[in-house]
Amino acid sequence: MHHQNKVESESEATIARRTRIGLILLAVYGLAYSVFIGLCAFASKSMADFSPWGIPFAIWYGMGLMVGAILMALLYGRLCQAKFNPN
Amino acid sequence: MIYETSWLAVGIFSIIVAITLGLSFYLGAKAQSSEGYFAAGGSIPWFINGIAFAGDYLSAASFLGICGMIAFYGYDGFLYSIGYLAGWVVALLVIAEPLKRMGKYTFADALDSRFQSSGIRLTASLSTLVVSIFYLIPQMVGAGSLVKPLLGLDYWVGVVMVGTVVIVIVVTAGMVSTTYVQFLKGGLLVIFSLILTILILYRGLTVVPTDPTIASAPQTVEVRDDKKWIDGSPQGHGPGEKDLRPVGRLVELPDGASSTGPLGPIAFLQTMSRSKIEIWSSKSEKVDGVSTTVYSPKVVDGMQLLQPGNHPTFKGIRGDRWVEKIDFISLMLALFGGTASLPHILIRYYTVKDQASARKSTIVGIAAIGFFYVLTLYIGLGAMVSGTLDVTDTNMAAPLLAKSFGNWLFAIISAIAFTTVLGTVSGLIIAASGTVAHDLIGGFMGVELNGFAQVRVAKIASVVVGAIAIGLGLLFEGMNVTYLVGWAFSIAASANLPALVMLLFWKGTTKVGLMIGILVGLFSSLSWILVCPDTFSKVYGLPASDAWIQLSQPGIVTIPLGFFAIYVASKFSGAENAKLSN
User: Fold this and answer.
1) Domain assignments of chain B as residue spans, ordered by start
2) For residue B210, pLDDT beyond 60
3) CB distance B270–A55 less than 8 Å?
4) CATH code matching the domain that covers B7-203+323-478, chosen among 3.30.470.20, 3.30.565.10, 3.30.70.560, 1.20.1730.10
5) Model pTM?
């Protein structure tokens, strides 16, 4: 069972640029996520000992990753839209 | 605890089911072609698809499981929320648009878009079916387990009801009805989780128990001859009988206050951090056929609960043993890589019209799912100090918390919790039946089917897969199967993710490489699971220390192994076999 690819009319350069943006943002988020996992695994006590404004760092970091994911998604959408929609 | 039938919850759930079935029959006309049945004609608006992502992804494990885990153990449930959401970043930034660009119906379609290989179809279908089954079992078992406390019905009724309703939804209108069921479910889940959170913050925190019968003495549950005994008395509400006491209270507020009044989101967390909270742990043993579990309270600082390492699964990260730390890292890696490679999530990308819509719908999905997961922290912590918890059932934390605000909210939350199963199971069945009809019968076996015939075959496959799902739900009654969801993520991340990423980003990938990679990822992760400590203790009933491999989570080994296998196999299979062309 074979299918035709549904290729949209986008330039290769546009696709390549979006891919680059996506990989850069993924690297940034991946680094933040990795540091979080590393701290939980190897310095879990510090996640509670350090408590800015009375809230454990574990909560701040976890919330930061959550909010960061949403903001990163919006940023990616914005950066892609600038190129994708010429109007 | 004994739960009375909530006819209000049954009524609300019945209304939701009636609406979803009505939608399915109304939309049935749009799903007669293969394009309509498998991909909703590519006509789903991106906002609807985004919320449907949330409805597809957020199962009972997310809502009830995570909230319950936070309610009993604190921060550790939130680790799952973080890992589950992080996976969506991978989906958006790496998978969404390329997958849509390949413009297909199934995961196997995407992998096979450049090779037209029956071998790729077979291996990708195999992976889809294995992941779907591993994911389906806990959903069906969850449906059966929840139906008694939430709706007051027997286990088998829940399993059969969910299976039957989903079969009707999928058979009548395929992906169209599945999408709108998931949209409805996702929307209700986020909205009512927000309402529950607002109520928690408005109520604030108090050291005065809401129910004066709460005491802090240990509670004992014995099971003899399939009957339960509570603190030496038969379980019940009649004379001479006893039931479990609801638990979960705040023992001490900062500065000796008795109550805080309404709190903002930050103030709530600050206050919890500085408070002392009573939590409950359990110890079980089995002697002469009698199983005894003792539930004991202890008071801990809130700061202690709001850091990782309280739950038995994660306790080891506070110790010095490397095995537990690596196990934890392996789990978080599987969650990060698994989301973007779950077949029932991937097929959602084909329901929108173009790549921009795929991107926008993923952004909406991330926003909805992320927002929901933030709320789970407040719902879990609110339940922890609500005085309503059932020590024997962590999954009931969120519904029982809702009950403390009123029976209407309990009924709505219960109905929504049950509907979460419908949404996820619909997606799984359509993914599995699509791969049987489209990839195995049409692609691998080469049976030529026109669009309408394909749809007919897919509908028959849906009934068969749905029946299998019901059978599995009944077979696994009473078993602890929540770990299967984590394994589904590991298998998807080991078999599917390397194939997708290498196909998209390395021109040297060959069809042999893809096939070998999927098979290596699939069988290595499955084999690992069969000999790991979790399986030894929860499935075989043997000591976990006897397991052949002491890591329960295979991802840290099997995910890189999947990538390596594709690389090596592609290099060896060489240029004569359809390298990726520009």
Assistant:
1) 7-203+323-478, 219-320
2) no
3) yes
4) 1.20.1730.10
5) 0.91
